[in-house]
């Protein structure tokens, strides 16, 4: 189907274009709101500035597309958006459950309240993206770039974040229970009031991070770098910090019950009793 034919039929009131072949089509600035394009092929298409509000793009091929568009409440379940450019796109309340976003560019995109559970975000760039209260449960986020992203109150339960870049990201109030965040760069990230219980945070870099009142119980932090981190009122009970680095970390009023600090570097750390230096902690052999 040619782009011109699609737009003409849409203008005439038609909305069902399921399975359409629009590969490489130019649809920049087009209004296709509430259209049904399920299982269509828009690979390589130009949709810059398009209005795709509540459009059904379920299982649609959108790989290599330019989609700096309005996709508010759009259905993108199981869609293929690999290597697409969604810089600044609006995806508020959109569903991208199980979507393929591998290598996609979503810089400064607004994904607030969106559903990204089980989505593939490997190598995707979400620098400065807004993901407020987004659902990222079980998402694949290996090597995902989330520098300065807003993930406040987002749900990342059981997400896989290995080697992701969360530097200066805001995860205040986020849920990361059961997440695998090994080797993540989270320098100066905000995890205040976040829930990270039963997670794997081995070798994570949390230098200067804000972990105030966070829940990090029954969690592996082996080899983690928490130098200069703020852990005021944090809960670390039963967590494993073997070999962790907590140089000058602030742990005032923190719950360290049964936490394992074997071979941890605690130089200059401010402990729950306001003491510093060499604390008396559980150092299991």
The radius of gyration is 22 Å
Quaternary state of the chains: single chain
Summarize model confidence as the mean pLDDT.
Answer: 95
Based on DSSP secondary structure assignment, what is the total number of beta strands? Answer: 0
Sheet with the most strands?
none
Q: Give the overall form.
A: elongated
Strand content: under 5%
> How many helices does DSSP assign?
1
SSE string, helix = H, strand = E? Answer: H
Which residues sit in consecutive blocks of at least 5 with pLDDT less than 50?
Answer: 275-280
How far is the N terminus from the C terminus?
69 Å
Structural class: little secondary structure
**What fraction, in percent, of the residue positions are helical?**
under 10%
Which properties best describe this structure?
3% helix; little secondary structure; 285 residues; elongated; 1 helix
In short:
With 285 residues, the protein is low in regular secondary structure.
Topology:
Blueprint: H1 3-11
């Amino acid at each position: 189907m040619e782009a011109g034919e699609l737009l003409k039929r849409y203008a005439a009131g038609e909305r069902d274009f399921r399975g359409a072949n629009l590969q490489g089509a130019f649809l920049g600035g087009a209004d296709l709101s509430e259209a049904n394009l399920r299982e269509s092929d828009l690979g390589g298409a130009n949709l810059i500035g398009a209005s795709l509000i509540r459009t059904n793009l379920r299982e649609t091929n959108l790989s290599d597309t330019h989609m700096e568009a309005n996709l508010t409440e759009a259905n993108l379940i199981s869609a293929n958006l690999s290597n697409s450019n969604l810089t600044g796109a609006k995806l508020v309340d959109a569903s991208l459950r199980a979507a393929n976003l591998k290598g996609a560019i979503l810089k400064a995109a607004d994904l607030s309240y969106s559903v990204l559970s089980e989505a593939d975000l490997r190598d995707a760039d979400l620098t400065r993206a807004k993901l407020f209260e987004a659902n990222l449960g079980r998402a694949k986020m290996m090597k995902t770039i989330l520098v300065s992203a807003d993930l406040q109150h987002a749900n990342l339960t059981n997400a896989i974040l290995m080697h992701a870049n969360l530097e200066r990201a805001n995860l205040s109030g986020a849920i990361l229970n059961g997440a695998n965040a090994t080797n993540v760069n989270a320098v100066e990230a905000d995890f205040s009031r976040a829930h990270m219980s039963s997670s794997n945070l081995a070798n994570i870099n949390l230098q200067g991070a804000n972990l105030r009142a966070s829940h990090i119980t029954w969690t592996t932090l082996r080899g983690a770098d928490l130098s200069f981190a703020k852990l005021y009122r944090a809960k670390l009970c039963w967590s494993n910090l073997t070999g962790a680095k907590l140089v000058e970390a602030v742990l005032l009023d923190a719950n360290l019950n049964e936490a394992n600090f074997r071979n941890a570097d605690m130089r200059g750390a401010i402990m729950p009793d306001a003491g510093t230096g060499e604390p008396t902690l559980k150092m299991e052999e």
